[in-house]
Write a structure and sequence with these properties.
The complex is a heterodimer of chains A (141) and B (83).
Chain A lengths: L4 E6 L4 H16 L3 E6 L1 H6 L20 H10 L5 H11 L2 E6 H6 L14 E3 L1 H10 L2 E4 L1
Parallel strand pairs in A: 1-2, 1-5, 2-3, 3-4
Helix pairs in contact in A: 1-4
Chain B lengths: L2 H6 L2 E6 L7 H10 L7 E6 L4 H12 L2 E7 L4 E6 L2
Parallel strand pairs in B: 1-2
Antiparallel strand pairs in B: 2-4, 3-4
The chains are: A alpha/beta (141), B alpha+beta (83).
């Protein structure tokens, strides 16, 4: 069976949407998909070394007033953090994480070492477009 | 397979994924299937409702044989044979 490809444009830097992206990555990993993640503007902030899955530094995209309940509920259900989801998916299948060069600079990151070690490289938008043209599944989160 | 037939199966591997939420059971199954031999039977215990439809579909995509599901109290057992 030919390996299916997923191309994910990860714009969000909010904890609720990053968690959803993590769950989707889990499904893609179970199916042995090849996944390329392009980390865009707000996403690059979350990938900064001093942020990552420190949820006190991350906002909610929706229902911000319910963040405490949301986080507690995830904890009760033993749901992994978004970084744990991404890490697990990388261990299981071929997941490459590309940080958009512009997005990185917006948040003060210019080299790979400025981001959590899940990131594989810093790229330009051309790489994303090529990947999106070739993918079986395209997502923008 | 009938419930009685499923109960009589010689299970090589039991994956207890009842403590995890989606996609935990799917990923636990994915990891465990790599540890058993072709033709071995694996059962996955899950309390996550979505897994009940996810695992048969996953088996079909991966080429494993889905054998059936037994409902227990508060969880279920999904049986499959590795390709």
């Amino acid at each position: 069976m030919e390996q299916k490809k997923m191309c994910l444009a990860l714009y969000t830097g909010s904890v609720d949407k990053l968690t959803a992206a993590g769950v989707i990555l889990g499904g893609a990993a179970a199916d042995d998909m090849k996944v390329d993640i392009y980390v865009l503007l707000q996403g690059a902030r979350a990938f900064r070394k001093d942020i990552g899955d420190d949820e006190t530094k991350l906002n909610m995209a929706e229902n911000p007033e319910m963040k405490a309940e949301f986080m507690q509920s995830l904890k009760n259900l033993k749901v992994k953090t978004w970084v744990e989801f991404f890490k697990e998916a990388k261990e299981i299948t071929d997941v490459k994480i590309h940080i958009c060069g512009l997005a990185g600079k917006v948040w003060g990151g210019t080299k790979l070492d400025d981001f959590i070690d899940l990131a594989d490289d810093i790229c330009g938008i051309g790489a994303y477009i090529t990947c999106a043209q070739e993918a079986d599944v395209n997502l923008f989160i | 397979m009938t419930k009685e037939e499923l109960k009589k199966l010689n299970v090589a591997k039991t994956v207890d994924a009842r403590g995890t939420a989606c996609p935990g059971p799917l990923l636990e199954a994915k990891k465990a299937v790599g540890t058993i031999k072709s033709g071995d039977i694996m059962e996955v215990l899950s309390a996550d409702e979505g897994t009940k439809s996810d695992l048969p579909k996953w088996c079909a995509k991966q080429g494993h044989e889905y054998l059936g599901t037994i409902e227990e109290s508060g969880f279920f057992k999904v049986f499959m044979k590795k390709k």
